[in-house]
Design a protein that fits this description.
mainly alpha
């Protein structure tokens, strides 16, 4: 991106740890949990699909606004594709990590992870490859965020 934009973290753990040298910032987890509490309340009212789409729409709007605030106007057009690529790559990676971590936590086979090569390089085994000594790739931030579904969706 242009020199006036900030690099985005590669994953949620990196975002949470960015300011704390390897520990998860409680303020980050609190913010995540506030959003999840609102989404869970909305899911009780309108069903599970509506809040997810609203959160994605809000995230897109928020990120577009901040991109346009950070990039010099004369570079916005040339930086657009890079911004879109980076943003969708980060979201896809976080989504994969949460599918893998929450699936692992709940004992659900979520299929082969797109991040399997990264996990292997880091010495992690998940899903079909997991052994009893392995930790989930999302261990810290998924556990800290208490990924519990809304009561209406609990089995």
């Amino acid at each position: 991106m242009a020199e006036d934009t900030q690099a985005q973290p590669a994953n949620a753990a990196q975002a949470a740890q960015q300011n704390n040298n390897g520990t998860i910032d409680p303020a980050f987890i609190d913010a995540v949990n506030e959003y999840l509490t609102v989404a869970d309340a909305q899911a009780q009212k309108v069903g599970p699909g509506g809040p997810g789409l609203a959160i994605q729409f809000a995230a897109a709007r928020f990120n577009a606004h901040h991109f346009l605030m950070a990039v010099k106007p004369m570079y916005a057009a040339q930086e657009r594709k890079n911004f879109l690529d980076q943003t969708t790559e980060v979201f896809r990676k976080m989504l994969n990590q949460h599918l893998d971590g929450i699936g692992e936590e709940r004992g659900i086979d979520v299929g082969e992870s797109e991040l399997a090569a990264e996990y292997a390089a880091a010495g992690l085994k998940v899903g079909r490859e997991k052994d009893s000594a392995a930790k989930t790739p999302a261990e810290g931030y998924v556990a800290a965020a208490r990924p519990t579904p809304p009561a209406a969706n609990a089995e």
